[in-house]
Design goal:
Blueprint (H helix, E strand, L loop, with lengths): L1 H28 L3 H7 L1 E6 L7 E3 L2 E3 L1 H12 L3 E6 L3 H9 L5 E7 L2 H4 L2 E10 L1 E6 L18 E4 L3 H12 L5 E4 L7 H9 L6 E4 H8 L5 E2 L8 E8 L3 H14 L3 H11 L22 H8 L6 H12 L19 H6 L10 H18 L6 H14 L1 H13 L7 H11 L3 H4 L11 H21 L3
Parallel strand pairs: 1-4, 1-5, 8-9
Antiparallel strand pairs: 2-3, 5-12, 6-12, 7-10, 7-11
């Protein structure tokens, strides 16, 4: 009898606690704009990506990130960002109350309409053919019927699916080359088109617009699919938040802050035009050689290496401002410049820029002090200067996980810097800093070290 009573008591206690948990969960899922404003904070859910959210030189970036930041500011709220691993995970986290709003262009489908309220901007996207302007001796393709007999390189997935369907619609004839190489990303294929290594690939028009800022010779005008609508989303129990997001978009789409964000990611060229200012044949690299010599000693660098870094960053232009907001001769990001002691308003002063950059390089070198040789360590420091230390630590962790040497750059860590533009790698549990455009960092290190060898041949130490 006592045993039965004990079981009854345990059942009642379990039922009571379960009800309390269910009540707390229900209460959490009922959170709408008034409750969010009372808390003073809005939690945005997003995915890593070149147009959504990423960390660049230690600072959060991304078009969708900047928009949700502006929205939060308009409501007088602090912003917290949580990153999901997939679109399915985004919706799951939202429904579980782990965030208030999905700040990512989620595809609008009938199934999702039953679960969420779409809000904000309704973006219209479609797949496009990526080709070169004037590839070979021919004009850019302007009609899908001209794809018959042409070879298109594409990764497995929805782009490949669309090409197969298009091929059926045309009665066959498109030469579809499926790229199974795990080390190549959609960004890599676009780069290969721009460089003339392949003629065609396919991607979303938004992704294509962003990549066109890296390669001026791309043509992305030909749509090959129907339009797909996408938008931000909230729970159905947050109608006031949905209304506020939609109203904010329509009121702010023509403001300077919104236009500047759009321009930063989809219009401004990401490439620095490198034209020599002084000929190395004259015994000088730049007007700032005396400053490179002065400060390179503080970190035991060859001053010509510091000069090569400056050339790559700014083309020795003290007034240079990058798409990301990096300024001056050494292209320091605003937070980095401030942390390294650059006085406000002096970001474009050459000596202040070099002095701060050297201080930052010295601190970064300490992070990689376990790299056995100075020559090898320099490659890691340069990569971290370009991408941010966190991304290089991620690549080292990936290298170790996959049986490579985490203390060797060439053919080891650099391989995983390249792979960190691919979802399966930047979402790996060993990674803490997410997506990066690895090709930029890979080329950055190579360019600086190759130019250093030229400087060594031409200029005495």
């Amino acid at each position: 009898m006592k045993k039965a009573g004990l079981l009854l008591l345990l059942f009642a206690l379990t039922f009571f606690l379960g009800c309390r948990h269910h009540h707390a969960e229900s209460k959490q899922l009922q959170v709408d704009l008034p409750q969010i404003q009372d808390s003073g904070k809005i939690v945005a859910l997003t995915l890593y990506g070149s147009a959504s959210y990423f960390l660049y030189r230690g600072e959060p970036m991304g078009f969708e990130y900047e928009l949700i930041q502006q929205f939060a500011k308009s409501l007088g709220l602090q912003l917290e960002v949580k990153v999901a691993s997939s679109q399915e995970d985004l919706v799951h986290m939202l429904m579980q109350g782990e965030g208030d709003i999905i700040a990512y262009n989620l595809g609008i489908t009938k199934e999702l309409k039953d679960s969420v309220l779409f809000c904000g901007d309704e973006l219209i996207t479609h797949q496009v053919l990526v080709q070169r302007n004037g590839w070979g001796k021919q004009k850019p393709i302007q009609n899908v019927t001209q794809l018959i007999g042409k070879k298109i390189h594409v990764k497995p997935g929805r782009y490949l699916d669309r090409l197969h369907n298009l091929n059926k619609e045309l009665g066959g004839g498109i030469d579809i080359e499926v790229v199974d190489n795990d080390s190549l990303s959609a960004e890599d294929l676009i780069s290969m088109v721009a460089k003339g290594e392949i003629d065609f690939t396919v991607c979303d028009n938004t992704f294509a617009k962003l990549n066109k800022t890296y390669f001026y010779n791309l043509n992305i005008d030909l749509a090959i699919s129907f339009d797909q609508r996408s938008s931000w989303a909230v729970r159905k129990t947050s109608p006031f938040l949905a209304e506020a997001a939609t109203r904010w978009y329509w009121e702010n789409v023509k403001t300077s802050s919104y236009k500047q964000s759009h321009k930063r990611y989809f219009e401004i060229s990401k490439q620095i035009q490198h034209d020599p200012i002084l000929s190395v044949d004259g015994g000088m690299i730049s007007h700032y050689d005396h400053l490179f010599k002065k400060y390179a000693k503080e970190i035991h660098w060859d001053w010509r290496l510091l000069a090569s870094l400056a050339y790559t960053e700014s083309n020795f232009d003290t007034t240079a401002v990058s798409w990301a907001g990096a300024r001056g001769l050494m292209q320091l990001m605003p937070l980095t410049a401030k942390a390294m002691g650059v006085p406000e308003g002096k970001e474009q002063n050459p000596e202040e820029s070099i002095k701060a950059a050297v201080k930052y390089l010295g601190l970064t070198t300490e992070t990689f002090q376990n790299i056995p040789t100075e020559e090898e360590r320099t490659k890691f420091v340069l990569a971290a200067y370009n991408a941010g230390t966190g991304h290089i630590l991620d690549a080292m962790a990936l290298a170790e996980k996959y049986g490579k040497n985490k203390n060797i750059w060439d053919d080891n860590v650099e391989t995983f810097v390249l792979l960190k533009s691919k979802e399966e790698y930047y979402n790996d549990p060993v990674c803490k800093y997410g997506y990066i455009r690895g090709t930029d960092t890979y080329q950055f290190v190579k360019d600086i070290l190759n130019r250093l060898e030229i400087y060594k041949e031409k200029i005495k130490k």
